[in-house]
Amino acid sequence: MGPDFGLSGKLLQEALVHESRGPRGGENDPVAWIAANAACGGFRICESHLGRAHAAATDWMNLSSLLASVLGPIFLEMEREAAYWQGVRGSNPVPEFGFPETSRRTIPDRWMCTA
Question: How many structural domains comprise the chain?
Answer without folding.
Answer: 1
